[in-house]
Amino acid sequence: MADFVYRSVMHDIKQNILNGNYKGMRLPDERSLAESYQVSRSSMKRALGLLADQGIVFKKRGSGTFINPLYLKNQALFRYEGSNLGLTDSFKMPGKKQSIKLLDFHVIKASPEIAQDLFLNENDFVYEFKRLRFLDKQPFLIETGYLPIKIMPELKPETLQGSLFNYLEDKENKTVTKSFLNITVEPSNKEDQKEMNLKSTEPVGVMEGIFFLDDGTPFEVSNMRVHYKYMRFNTFVNLDR
Question: Of 122, 154, 194, 207, which has the maximum CB count within 10 A?
Answer without folding.
Answer: 207
